[in-house]
Design a protein that fits this description.
about 170 residues, flat
Length: about 170
């Protein structure tokens, strides 16, 4: 209960379990893992990953190839950086990414997957929604579009991106 873990440096890991347990890391290849009610994980640095499980457990990462994954109701995942992915499972659990080729995946009722970077992809499950942007390669924003699954032809558990016209297109995982 109330346990925290913090590390810094390359290859550093942090793991916690229990009620309101938190984990924070910084440095290359640093990972954080938590489990329990309101458990949070935050990392910074390349290849830094965060994984949480439990009710209202959140994960946030920054850095290239830094991934965040959560499971549980209201458990959110946010990433920034090239190829930094966010994935959530649970009702009201949202995934948001920004950065080049960063992908967002959310499953669960009322969950939103938002990929806001260049060449990003998003998918959501039944009862969810996706948000996507289309940018020129120089970063200029041309289109932004959102849809609930089941509207505008959006299928559950299918990856989408936007084309140069701002239309949803199915893409490979």
């Amino acid at each position: 209960e109330g346990a925290n873990a913090a590390t810094t440096g390359e290859g550093a890991n942090a793991a916690t379990t229990g009620y309101r347990a938190n984990a924070a890391t910084t440095g290359n290849r640093a990972n954080a893992a938590t489990t329990g009610y309101r458990a949070n994980a935050a990392t910074t640095g390349e290849w830094a990953n965060a994984a949480t499980t439990g009710y209202r457990a959140n994960a946030a990462t920054t850095g290239n190839w830094a991934n965040a994954a959560t499971t549980g109701e209201w458990a959110n995942a946010a990433t920034t950086g090239y190829w930094a992915n966010a994935a959530t499972t649970g009702n009201w659990a949202n995934a948001a990414t920004t950065g080049y080729r960063a992908n967002a995946s959310a499953s669960g009722e009322h969950a939103v997957a938002a990929s806001l970077g260049i060449q990003g992809k998003a998918k959501a499950g039944i009862g969810g929604a996706i948000v996507l942007c289309y940018h020129e390669i120089d970063g200029r924003l041309l289109h932004i579009r959102a849809s609930k699954v089941g509207e505008y032809g959006i299928k559950p558990d299918v990856w989408y991106s936007l084309d140069e016209s701002g239309e949803f297109v199915e893409v490979e995982a």
